[in-house]
Amino acid sequence: MIPALMPTYNRADLAFERGQGSWLYTVDGRRFLDLGAGIATSSLGHDHPQLVAAIAQQAGRVMHVSNLYRVPQAERLAARLVAASFADSVFFCNSGAEANEGMVKIIRRAQAHGGHPERTRIICFNGAFHGRTLAMLSATGNPKYLDGFGPVVEGFDHVPMNNMNALRAAITPETAGIMIEPVQGESGVNIADPRFLQEVRAACDEFGLFLGMDEVQSGMGRTGRLFAHEWSGVTPDVLSTAKGIAGGFPMGAILATEATAKYLTAGSHGTTFGGGPLACAAANVVLDVLLAPGFLDQVQTRGTQLAQVLDALVDEFPDLFAQWRGIGLILGLRCLVPVGLMQDAALHEGVLTVTAGDNVLRLVPPLVLTEEDCAEAGRRLRRAALRLRAHQAASAEDAA
Ligand SMILES: Cc1ncc(COP(=O)(O)O)c(C=O)c1O
Question: Which residue ranges have their beta carbon within 6 Å of ligand 1?
Fold first, then answer.
């Protein structure tokens, strides 16, 4: 019989009762180091005092009013995001997929109302992940996610990442813009080459295209900068973000330049819940933390420390791991054995991780991970690798 909760996820048999910092505790008292952060989302970890207080306080005042009225928390958050980024204007929504849908709508509308209604197509990249709505499945282009969901939404073309010849060849008179993740998370932590991003920007300028960056996963401090594109020196015209923006409270945002955002006039786009007082109160606290002097530098330091952990694993276990890659606190360990086995071994040692494409174990911990948490991650992941090696040896013996 089908479970009451639709079985769209293969869930681990674990239920957490509470958390503290980068640690989660099960109902039966077991303790886990959370290197997954609810898929790169619990940016301030668990039970963050200011975040909890802001949500509780806001919930006790007013939780929802709709966008028919002014929302001071949203106005403040938007102004702060504008001040801290390339953007001139911000739209708040509820998830990454919704932010990406809006980003594509902005790009198309800016072309249509800017005199080029024929420009509707968006160039996307192999290995991309943009979400699960019908259009974003199409933008993602992965047949695994499209199976059985009917005709793909028209208007998305795909080319390989870091290949300028392929990209230029794909640009047609119908191309409206380019949508790229500066760091592809779901397909295995693949970084867009900064030079490639610079050339993509140049091509957009040359052909009158808009550059949209999907920073749903890589944004809001994850790479040690507020947004990952800052590492390349390239600025987009539009950017989507979500996941960590409100520390685990559901929220997404679209950041845009005036040149693109000005076409999204009253009534042209909307959302009931987006930019509500509760989500914005949470996101303002996240921004307080991210923009505090030294915090993003600390994310970089912690990223280097965690990368050293992965480096040591690759060195000591060349039979299990091929390489690590990533930037800041979005790191991937490419495994030579099925990644699920390493994830299980880590779980046995009390470490939560996420998998990604290309047989990669993905580490996207809370941005508040401490030095001691990192050291503990090193000890536990090493024990997990030893456990996995022993398991591999036993299986080989059984097979012989
Ligand atoms: C880069 C990127 N874009 C979009 C999404 C979709 O976000 P959501 O699940 O919030 O709709 C994800 C989710 O993993 C993502 O990593």
Answer: 95-97, 100, 129-131, 181, 185-186, 214, 216-217, 242
Q: CA-CA distances (angstroms) from residue 248 to 77, 218, 266, 318, 389?
A: 16, 15, 29, 36, 35
What is the whole-number distance in angstroms between the Cα of residue 324 and the centre of ligand 1?
A: 22
- Give the 3-state secondary structure of residue 248: coil
CA angle 266, 272, 277 (to 5 degrees): 100
Residues 171-215 pLDDT 10s? 999 999 999 999 999 999 999 999 999 999 999 999 999 999 999
Each residue's pLDDT tens digit, 40-55: 999 999 999 999 999 9
Is the residue at 166 inside a domain? yes
* Mutation choice for ligand 1 from 39, 130, 142, CB with most ligand atoms inside 8 A: 130
Same domain, 251 and 266: yes
Q: Which domain holds residue 392?
A: 16-34+294-399
Whole-Å CA distances, 325 to 30, 80, 191, 244, 314: 30, 32, 8, 21, 11
- The predicted-structure confidence for 335-356, as pLDDT tens digits, reads as follows 999 999 999 999 999 999 999 9
Q: Is 271 annotated as a binding residue?
A: yes
With residue 40 as reference, give the H or E element that holds it: helix 37-40
Tokens 């948490």 correspond to what residue? 373
The residue whose CA has the least distance to atom 4 of ligand 1 is 130
State whether 164 and 237 are in the same domain: yes
Residue 353 belongs to a domain: yes
- CA–CA gap between residue 273 and residue 93 (Å, rounded): 7
Give the SS3 label for residue 331. strand
Q: Flag whether 217 is marked binding.
A: yes
Helix (H, G, I), strand (E, B) or coil at 275: coil
- pLDDT tens-digit readout, 97-135: 999 999 999 999 999 999 999 999 999 999 999 999 999
Using DSSP, state whether 393 is helix, strand or coil: helix
- Mean pLDDT calculated for residue range 229-243: 98
